[in-house]
Amino acid sequence: MSKEVDKSEYTSVSQNVKIVPIKKAPTIGHRHLQAFLYFLMGFVAFGFRVCLSVNIVAMTDPLVNSNPDIPTYPHWTKKNLILSSFFCGYMLPQIFAAYVAKKYGAKWFLVGTMTLQSLLSFLTPLTAAHFGEIGMMISRVMQGCCQGFIFPSCAHFLSVWIPPQERSRIGSTIYTAGKGGTLFALIITGLLAASSYGWPMAFHFFGVCGLGWCILMIIFGYDTPQEDSRISCVEQEYIETSLGYTEDSINQKTPWRKILTSVPVWALLAAQTGSNYCFWTILTQIPSYMNYMMNFDLKKNGFWSAMPYLVFWILGTIFGILSDWMINKEIVSRGAARKIFNSIGLLIPACALIALGFTRSDQTTQAVVLLIIAVGLNAACFSGFAVNHVDLSPNHAGSLMGFCNGLAQTSGIIAPLMVQVFIHDVRNPLEWRNVFCLAAAVNVVTSTVYDLFGSGEIQPWNTEDVEEDDKK
């Protein structure tokens, strides 16, 4: 039986009323356990993504491969196509993923796709040996499809589990988990690839991590507070009251026409695309840049390539706390906070990338510092555009994330291909300069678009169907 809760302790919510934290809100509760599971999912998922960016150096260069008994493939000429093929699959299920998360819950879809990706990771060495570059591309497309469920599910999770006054810090923590996974993957992949086990061990390692997460999600994961048998009545009431939960808001149809004609949505898409382009340009190319321009060996390469993501991970949490504090203290509006942090996350890294383009091969310290700035301060975006989907439409956050994330991930395909267009000699600093300056230009343009046209207000179409039903 449920306990009676004094609703006077709660502040009712509406679209434009400031939300005041209730007195009885549990400091640590089951919403944090669910957030931790989503955090771990992002951590492991980015390990799968990043592992190949480091491993492909050892897979294709006999001089780097640590175990002579393990084959290498120096004849491969489509390395950037292999890296970008992940995003061809990643784009495909985004909107469908948002639909199933809202309609059926995300838990079992996430468990299933993570299990499949773990198996594909285990099979990667065999895929490379027997099916070559084409097989690797197909495998990466399939892994991309598996990960296409992640961010729409995260956005839906934030909309049904996390009160608005906690959303920046919890949302930024979940979304920056991928950068923690990136940090971990860059280091551990470099160490494993340089060990006597050779490069296949890294693929096996992340396969085990993925299956381990599935077990935790099966035991502890729930789609909604209403389904969680362990949650306290106080916490459940706190979440539902803060979110203004109703069955109508959960079940209403997605107003795609209004979404597609919404200026703030397209501004959000621009910011997300720009951030993704810069991120994937750096992530897919840092190991090669460090190896060929800075002359780092594989162990050192993995370590120094990972350092920017450690800073990103730390700053992501700090920016999230600061953003929530500024909004809750009414220092700035929600929309202004999103634009401030988004500008920090795109414009300062743009300056660092331009400077990196003029760094000489003997200036390794300067190069690492600039990479730390370019990647680390990008964490501010996760208190900017990354949580803006839920700001614009809590009822359709998953669909909005699916739409924006799906289109924005075209930059993940384009970024490695643009590198292939610009770079013909991996030891030519002028060619690397062009790559970094292009990424900086994309940051500046997309940041400007978001600052001019972005919004932090709930859009009218968020509850349009519900309001129309009420009038009937």
Which terms summarize this structure?
472 residues; mainly alpha; Growth Hormone, Chain: A; disordered N terminus
Architecture overview:
It is built from 21 helices and no strands. With 472 residues, it is mostly helical. It has one domain (28-465): Growth Hormone, Chain: A, CATH 1.20.1250.20. Helix 2 runs parallel beside helix 5 (124-147) and helix 7 packs antiparallel against helix 14 (298-328). The protein is globular. The two termini are 35 Å apart.
- What percentage of the residues does DSSP assign to strands (E)? under 5%
Distance between the termini: 35 Å
What CATH first level would be assigned? Mainly Alpha
Q: How many separate domains?
A: 1
Portion of residues within helices: over 70%
Q: What would the principal axes of the Cα set say about the shape?
A: globular
H/E element sequence: HHHHHHHHHHHHHHHHHHHHH
- Quote the average pLDDT: 84
Number of strands: 0
CATH topology assignment: Growth Hormone, Chain: A
What would CATH call the homologous superfamily? MFS general substrate transporter like domains
Rg calculated over all Cα atoms:
22 Å
- Structural class of the helix and strand makeup? mainly alpha
Name of the CATH architecture: Up-down Bundle
Membrane topology: Multi-pass membrane protein
Keywords: Membrane, Transmembrane, Transmembrane helix
Main location: membrane
Pfam family, one: MFS_1
